[in-house]
C-alpha cells in the first residue's frame, strides 16, 4: 500500500473511532475515552489527602481547581461541542467514506482539543 493510501486509511479509521465514541453514551463531560474528562472535586480531594496538603495549600488548590473547571468548560462548550456536531453531521450522511479533507479537519480539531486540555492539566 502506498504511503498516501496508508495515511488516508489511518485517518478514515480515526474518524470511525471518533464517530463510534460519539455514538456511545457520553461520559459526564467528554467523549468517553477519546477525550479526557476534567479532574473532579472528589479526585482533587483524594490527591490533597494523599499529599497531606495543609489548609492553606488546599485552599490554593481549590482556587486553582475552580479556574481549571471554568477553562475546561469553555473547551467543552466550544471545541468539543463543535467536534461532536461535526461528527453527528458526518454520521447523518450514512455509511460512506468521508473525504480526506474532512478526516484531516476532524483530526486537527481533535488534536487541538487534546492540546488545550493538556495545557490546563
Please describe what this structure looks like.
Helix 1 crosses helix 3 (55-92), helix 1 (3-23) packs across helix 4 and helix 3 (55-92) packs antiparallel against helix 4. The chain is built from four helices and no strands. It has helices at 3-23, 41-50, 55-92, 100-120. Mean pLDDT is 79; it is low at 19-30. It starts with a helix and ends with a helix. The protein is mainly alpha-helical and 121 residues long. The longest helix has 38 residues, at 55-92.
Radius of gyration: 18 Å
Tally the helices: 4
Q: Please state the overall shape, judged from the principal axes of the Cα atoms.
A: elongated
Q: Provide the structure class.
A: mainly alpha
Strand content: under 5%
Low-confidence stretches: 19-30
The major sheet is characterized as: none
Bin the helical content.
over 70%
Distance, first to last CA: 39 Å
List keywords for this structure.
121 residues; mainly alpha
SSE layout and pairings?
Layout: H1 3-23, H2 41-50, H3 55-92, H4 100-120
How would you briefly describe this protein structure?
This protein has 121 residues and is mostly helical.
Amino acid at each position: 500500500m502506498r504511503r498516501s493510501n496508508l495515511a488516508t486509511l489511518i485517518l478514515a479509521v480515526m474518524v470511525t473511532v471518533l464517530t463510534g465514541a460519539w455514538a456511545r453514551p457520553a461520559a459526564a463531560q467528554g467523549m468517553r475515552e477519546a477525550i479526557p474528562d476534567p479532574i473532579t472535586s472528589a479526585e482533587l480531594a483524594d490527591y490533597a489527602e494523599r499529599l497531606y496538603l495543609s489548609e492553606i495549600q488546599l485552599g490554593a488548590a481549590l482556587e486553582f481547581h475552580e479556574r481549571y473547571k471554568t477553562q475546561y468548560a469553555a473547551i467543552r462548550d466550544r471545541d468539543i461541542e463543535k467536534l461532536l456536531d461535526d461528527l453527528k453531521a458526518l454520521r447523518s450522511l450514512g455509511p460512506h467514506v468521508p473525504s480526506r479533507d474532512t478526516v484531516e479537519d476532524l483530526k486537527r480539531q481533535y488534536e487541538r482539543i487534546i492540546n488545550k486540555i493538556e495545557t490546563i492539566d
